[in-house]
Write a structure and sequence with these properties.
The protein has about 210 residues and is α+β, with helices and mostly antiparallel strands. It has 5 helices and 13 strands. Strands 2, 3, 5, 7, 8, 9, 11 and 13 form an 8-stranded antiparallel sheet that branches. The chain has a 3-stranded antiparallel sheet with strand order 1-6-10, with no helix packed on it.
Length: about 210
């Protein structure tokens, strides 16, 4: 096979892959998100104020009032294999409505959104940070950005302050954005149907349950 034919075949492969991606993995637009919310295909409670929370292809979620902080001064390290270790090295802090939480530079905190989100078996959710907050050094997830088909609960935020100045977070502020992507077909086993799903129906920033993995 000549070099030109190889290049042509490579380009055709790229085109086919892109076609399959756009055919089966579409991100919902603002119009489709409104339809999904209206038909209860996607359920967000309390209902978002679309005038301020709906983006071109995402819904902004607001910060809840519950935080889980790490008490690093009492423990030298974390042992993920130890049962209930998080209860020993973390503590829950609840902030009053419209209250604030100060994140110090380099701090890592678990939090939840004010909203509960329910995703159908033929969609997945993806949590993203907001650019305006990212420019201040705030990240909203360290690794877990994907919410499986069938998810039902409050999304947990893995907040980190990468900057050199403290950041004041206010309960109820728009903290992150969630997009929704179509699957090629409905999941055979949605998240809430999984026997060993560790975080289904959560409504608080629960500690890591990695020790439960088989």
């Amino acid at each position: 096979m000549s070099g030109s034919n190889q290049i042509l075949d490579g380009k055709m492969l790229i085109v086919n892959v892109r076609f399959l991606w756009y055919t089966f993995c579409m991100v919902l637009s603002d119009k489709d998100i409104k339809k999904a919310l209206s038909s209860k295909r996607i359920v967000i409670k309390p209902s978002p104020a679309l005038a301020t929370q709906l983006g071109s292809c995402s819904v902004d979620l607001r910060l809840g009032n519950t935080f889980r902080v790490f008490d690093h001064s009492k423990h030298a390290y974390i042992d993920p294999s130890k049962k209930d270790y998080s209860n020993e090295i973390t503590k829950v802090i609840k902030v009053e409505k419209d209250g604030s939480f100060i994140m110090q530079p380099g701090e890592f905190v678990l939090a939840v959104t004010l909203e509960t989100v329910k995703i159908p078996s033929d969609l997945m959710g993806r949590l993203e940070g907001r650019s305006s907050l990212g420019r201040l050094g705030l990240v909203v997830h360290s690794t877990a950005s994907i919410f499986d088909p069938g998810w039902d609960g409050k999304p947990v935020l893995e907040l980190g302050n990468l900057g050199r100045m403290a950041i004041k977070l206010t309960v109820g502020m728009r903290i992150c954005a969630m997009t929704f992507e179509e699957l090629s077909s409905p999941a055979e086993t949605p998240y809430t149907s999984k026997k060993f799903a560790k975080y289904k129906f959560q409504n608080a920033p629960e500690e890591s349950r990695i020790h439960e993995e088989k």
